[in-house]
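Readers of this paper often ask what the protein records in our data store actually look like. An entry from our holdings is shown next, in its original layout:
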Amino acid sequence: MLARAGRRLAGLLFGGSCLLCRGAASELLCAACDADLPRIPAGPGAEFCPRCALASPAGSVCGRCLARPPAFDATVAALEYRFPADVLVQALKFRSELSLAALFGKLMTEARKEQVDLVIPVPLFPRRLRERGFNQAMEIARHVVRVTGGRLDPHLCERVVDTRAQLDLPVEERERNVRGAFRCNGFVGARVAVVDDVMTTGSTLNELARTLKQAGAERVVNWVLARTPAPA
């Protein structure tokens, strides 16, 4: 705590480049702030459901996914959605800090576990894309494919319904809100990774996976930067 306060004070007095503490850094984040990122453990011993990336004993498929199997086959998340990950996500999404897309792409490629044929970003409805000026999922996906390979196709799927913002809705209404929201413009027939910034209930990703499966996708995995914890 004192060390972080010292870094922030030094940043205020002397300037710097770390996006979080404003201290000196050769990258977007200094080494200390990078170490503070709430990374989700991967590999043997990681106690997270391989399907939805929520905590699950021994890394087994969780009870939620067993009771109601989602349309997607797996989820890989780099970070837990809590400070300072939430601050960084909001900086990209609402303050247009596009330089963060490269950092997010790097974190996500470090966490990924399998090869895919096709990478698509979660599409925005055209009106929202015009208002924001960019699709944050697309900006992240650009950097992901530079490392992972696979074909980036931002036009294969489109959002055809201007749904209400999921954050404005109770959890039980989110699935209904996105039903029929996406359309695929062609046969998929491949292993697909869907890129997004944050996975909350998974309703949007589930609906997009369902649409992709109907279009012939063999397997759909979610590659997300951050995962919110399960509701209490």
About this structure: The first strand starts at residue 74 and ends at 80. The chain has two domains: 1-36, 39-227. The mean pLDDT is 86.
